[in-house]
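Hi Prof. W.,

I finally got the Chloride channel protein prediction working! I wasn't sure whether to trim anything, so I left the full sequence exactly as given:
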Amino acid sequence: MNEESSLHKESTSINDTMEEEVEERDPESNPLNEPLLKRNRTLSSNPLALVGAKVSYIESLDYEINENDLFKQDWRSRSRTQVLQYIFWKWTLAFLVGLLTGVIATLINLAVENIAGYKLLAVVKYIQKERYLMGFLYFAGLNFILTFVAAILCVCFAPTAAGPGIPEIKAYLNGVDTPNMYGATTLFVKIIGSIGAVSAGLDLGKEGPLAKEALTITESSGDGFGISTTIVTDAISSPVVLLQGAPVGGVLFALEEVATWWRSALLWRTFFSTAVVVVVLRATIELCHEGKCGLFGEGGLIMYDVSNVTVRYNAMDAIPVVIIGVLGGVLGSLYNYLLHKVLRVYNLINQKGKMYKLLLSLSVALFTSICQYGLPFLAKCTPCDPSFPDICPTNGRSGNFKQFNCPDGHYNDLATLLLTTNDDAVRNIFSTNTPLEYQPSSILIFFALYCILGLITFGIAVPSGLFLPIILMGSGYGRLLGILMGPLTNIDQGLFAVLGAASLMAGSMRMTVSVCVIFLELTNNLLLLPITMIVLLIAKTVGDSFNPSIYEIILHLKGLPFMDANPEPWMRNLTVGELVDVKPAVVSFKGIEKVANIVNALRNTTHNGFPVMDDGVVPPTGVANEATELHGIILRAHLIQVLKKKWFLKERRRTEEWEVREKFTWVELAEREGNIEDVAVTKEEMDMFVDLHPLTNTTPFTVLESMSVAKAMVLFRQVGLRHMLVVPKYQGSGVSPVIGILTRQDLLAYNILTVFPHLAKSKRK
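And this is what came out:
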């Protein structure tokens, strides 16, 4: 009775804590280095995070192998054929993920190229007839409708489909399971929303939404095989392949930026998935090459080819290369800082309701359309270079010399950059051997505009990515620096634009190796390798001295409990024993437990793991004194399975091996769904017993209470744990073999500092 009372009190305090956290959610009152969710001064609070537009409970993933009796028996009984079958299914799933992601992404590209292309062709016809107002109304109206479709789907049907998706995937691969992130509805909204938002000319990319689509496909196709979490990393590289034409860069992106754990087998499967995607992409391009797919299919895998220029260096070139690297680091960190502020403001607007989120998206779309159509009127018309008689001026959808409002034989350089798709804008500003193509004032306007659009577009209720916006911003100041350097350097202005884009990506996202390879694959110019590497190293070093990467900032804002690779130095001054001392007492079970105790514990706590201990056990060492044995840890999901299947005993006894195999399968124990409220237990069954030994993980990870938090955090992250048992340094009669359990939330730096504020002083020192 006392145990039930204490459990009820603990449940009440947990519920009160959750209500206080939701009620106290006031982003404005938090410092800018705090997440949008307030946290109480306790290590026992349930994890909350911003998932989509709602505050949601989140859980950790069970990456650890549950070595209970059933698992051991199943593993011993597997034949060589079954093992080979398991390996075959993993490779088959990797193939399906690459194939399905490739098909879906190709369809998105096909739709975007045709919708945006025919829209721009229609606008050009109005401009040629000097019907500028009708051209603007058509341009802005169609963009408004496309954005409305994308936003209304995200706002009303799948709020989690909005945004980039890569931060959530990083958290997923780090061991965080967020609810309602991946499903058929989210996949559908992501596809339609991406088509609408990108076709509307918004300053965003498709790699983020497609990354989440790839993960959704993986989760759906991997369900039931128990291997979906190992295939997720394979899927993340596919969008980079399709949208940037960089297969090897996609593999390195998954390794450098997204994956928490990496091994050679995973590298093989990821490379295999990207190979499948490349085949799909190449086959589609060949199929559509002769106009069978409308405006899609021109070109090849090299998206921004700059191989037609000779790269030569001299001593003076070191100066602009260093300047670009420093600018990339400074501007990248500044962009991260300002975007942090903008996202907090957007969060306040989004809290007001669905209508406000929709109006915000439509306002950004209207502002973007006004700028893209109106600003080219500020630019002066430039006479065409006689050496380009066939391509200047350009009146079609794509080209470097758009005529716009200029007379024959002249072109508008700002319209060339603004009144086009984002992909074509990158191609145009990367153009080589055209030193007089753009005026400095036009490049400055382009750079300023895309800095503003890059800040206000990311965060609205549409699927979005960060790659293209950052490339557009970086290429702007890179090209401008190339114009200003002029005769002082041998580097082409188009190559300056490439270096600027790379430097801003390194300065904001803090990636180096993957960005280097991605840009080499995009531009098809290996001679850029030395200066690209130098620029990336300088930009990342400068950026790291100011703030974290943009994805880390978003993770922190959302409150997702991402576990960093490197612990804080002050964590070595704190032991895990001190952490568990400030937590509530651990709730444990006996090896043969009464049903009533299990039901009460599940109903009155939110714990997902419970130690299983046996009293009165004589150690095999021959010591006569009886001791308490730690048998292992049992998961909440397995206890719910026991209650659902009514696996009860009328007397206290150990079950036989055949009894367990008769009632449970390893597939059933792999499931993590189930709620105690859905389980009905009669009064008579409450007095029965359950043998927990066969379902208990007998090999949990345990650490001594004297271990430092820093060391425990490294172990927790590298092994992919969900529960870490803390055992006493000195054991004897009457001493419990487990003094506490640490979870992901307990080892996060900002949670620890709320309980031990004095450590913040040592952190500042």
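The longest helix spans residues 80-128. Does that look reasonable to you?

Thanks,
D.
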